[in-house]
Design a protein that fits this description.
The protein is of the alpha+beta class. It is 28% helix and 31% strand. This is DUF1254 domain-containing protein.
Length: 183
């Protein structure tokens, strides 16, 4: 009886280890992640409006059909970029993802407190190279530090009713991510 319990315990421990390793390894082994799916249809440092998701076809899985979405695939190698996203009447959010899909920063229209969400995206090295300006406060210039050189920026706007989807699409289509002019 004890022998069977030891075999059962060993099997459970081995199964747990295999499950744990698989769960941690699988996201790194996936070849069709969001970045790879969007790479052929998005230019570098430019926004593209994603179509309305349907059960049969969606650019990325689990998209909410109540939101219009626009995506910018960024590369900070040549330099920092400036993001400008007008807010819609209902709700607007901006989320930043690393190349591997880890969300590292998000802001919405209520937190921004303005009619346009404006911020600068750069690496830590690029931020350290900025000249210190005593007359510019943190409230004047929002700077987001990216942990990776490449990634995705997703702007979403809520369409509270299906008939208001064109308004939400117009808001996210007006978003821009362009190279930051040199100081």
């Amino acid at each position: 009886m004890i022998r069977w319990l030891l075999w059962l315990l060993a099997g459970l421990i081995l199964g747990g280890i295999v499950h744990f390793v698989t769960v941690l390894w699988l996201p790194k082994a996936a070849t069709r992640d969001a970045y790879a799916r969007l790479e052929p249809v998005t230019p570098v440092n430019g926004f593209v409006l994603l179509g309305e998701p349907t059960p049969e076809k969606a650019p990325v899985p689990f998209m909410d059909p109540a939101f219009a979405a626009s995506v910018c695939r960024y590369d900070l190698g040549p330099g920092a970029i400036k993001l400008t996203a007008p807010v819609s009447q209902a709700y607007t959010s901006v989320t930043f993802y690393t190349r591997t899909g880890v969300a590292y920063y998000a802001i919405n229209d209520r937190a921004a407190g303005r009619r346009v969400i404006e911020l600068d995206l750069m690496t830590t090295k690029q931020r350290d190279a900025l000249p210190t300006e005593e007359d510019v406060t943190a409230a004047d210039r929002l700077i987001v530090e990216s942990p990776t050189q490449t990634g995705l920026i997703v702007v979403r706007a809520l369409a509270p009713e299906p008939g208001l989807r064109p308004m939400a699409e117009a808001a996210v289509s007006a978003a821009k991510c362009a190279p930051l002019p040199p100081p």
